[in-house]
Amino acid sequence: MKKSPLEKITLAILIIAVMIFFMMPIYWLLITAFKYGREAFAIPPKWLFFDFTLKNFIEALTTVKTPRFILNSIIITTGATLLSLILGVPAGYAIARSKSKLLNFSSYFFLLLLMVPPVAMLIPFYLIMRDVHLLGSYFAVILLDTVFDASFVVWMMRSYFADVPQEMEEAALVDGASHVGAFFKVALPLSTPGIVASALYVIIYSWNDFLFALMLTSPKTKTIPLGILASFSAVEIGWGRMAAMSIFAIIPAVIISLFLNKYFVRGLTMGATKG
Amino acid sequence: MKSFALTFRRFFRDDGQYLLLLSPLLIFAVVVAIYPLFFSFRISLFDYRLTDPNQTQTFVGLKNYIRAFSDTVVLDSLKTTLIYVFGTVTLELVFGLGLALLLSAEVRIIRMLRSFLIMPMAIPPLVVGLVWKALYNADFGVIPFYMKALGLSVGHGPLAELKLAMLAVILIDLWQWTPLLMVIFLAGLKSLPTEPYEAAVVDGASRWQSFWFITLPLLKPTMLVALLLRTMQSFKVFDTIYATTAGGPGSATTVLNFHIYTVGMTFFDMGYAAALANILLVVIAVLSIIYIMVLERQQF
Hints:
A: mainly alpha; MetI-like fold; B: MetI-like fold; two-stranded antiparallel ribbon
């Protein structure tokens, strides 16, 4: 069935309309970050031609503690990512290789954990962290992020290892290696693509987290989403600065969605698609 | 006896070692996740307010749970949640399928456009909320400007009007998550067999007929997975609500998840908040188990 020219034009217009809808907010954020205050809210809106300025970025980096917020986000994201990989990758391997029903079944336990509403975990966790005097520390946020991150890593790595050929591991076992040895010497070095895919999703998850950081961080350990909110509700309405800070906050998102989106999508759908 | 010894030896040779690899995470999960969930169940049986200077915890049994089911604010927020979940999930399913069909061609430019559509999902939801809050602003926002140009009345802006607020936050959700449905449907479309379509062409079916009678029925399993996944996620919305309406105007956008946060972290009524959180947890757990069962049935 060939499409008529009329159909083709209709489809092209539809595609353009869809792209405008989905890209408009991101484009707005981008240009607002480079606009002077008076132009940011000019009526009618200035979509194309405006006075270009770096003022918002300079302000974001000097008057508010954006570098500090970014550093805090990096510390928490790195901590949670490393911890969840260290805990999750061996566990995913064990579940994929073991023939024990009980071990196989435990992957569902981690999937269930992944689905727990964050607020249900946060309320008791907040009280526990208060009692052990860890409220406001990086560690508290890293721990809670890792619950969700590591559960995700197990689920992803289990399906990754299940798809990987086992001949080399079996050869190592025949040569007298233990299962633990086969994991560290043979399987782990070969699993880089799976680890990268899991890590990407985990990085985005921890970087984007707002609720946990909102309750568990102190002014010193605030992450970038909280920093944006705080500087925004300050005395003057700093939309331009908010936009500039947001640009920093969305850098990982932009990189991953444009260059590594296959892995990211596989994570988002939690194995519902093979990406 | 011999078989027991054999099982025992096998355990230490195989499963014991696997258990060793699994145990760090298991211990972590028990301490950092399972213990807090038990702790949460315990405090939900108590009247415990952080604002109380003596920090007294009075055992009240299931009173917090009983209170939850007769609390009109909770029942209202439950209604709001259901409207939000139903609205977002159905619209995203429909538009997601539309997007998948629109952008299914394996051409370079279409592939590029698709990767741009992944972006909304990766942006911090809080930033998404703030951006839309600016776009919706009654005085300088872009959306009210074009609404006025079309002769529509904007009042205090879409987020501050009782009738529009829910629609406005649903639109934000659509913006961020419709692309996810597109991705799931694209994967579903690619896995469809080609024979039925060839047969349909031979029989002289129109494109619309082959969509309605072949594609849609074959996509049912994909739709079920997408429906369950998005329903669970939609129940947990928080950041965008926090950034845009904070549950208002009035309680027009106070979804249950946001209400639990308010009870716990603004009113510090911990026992009650824990009870509400546990109710939400059970709802999500039931959905998760259904999701797992569906996923497993499709893979094997």
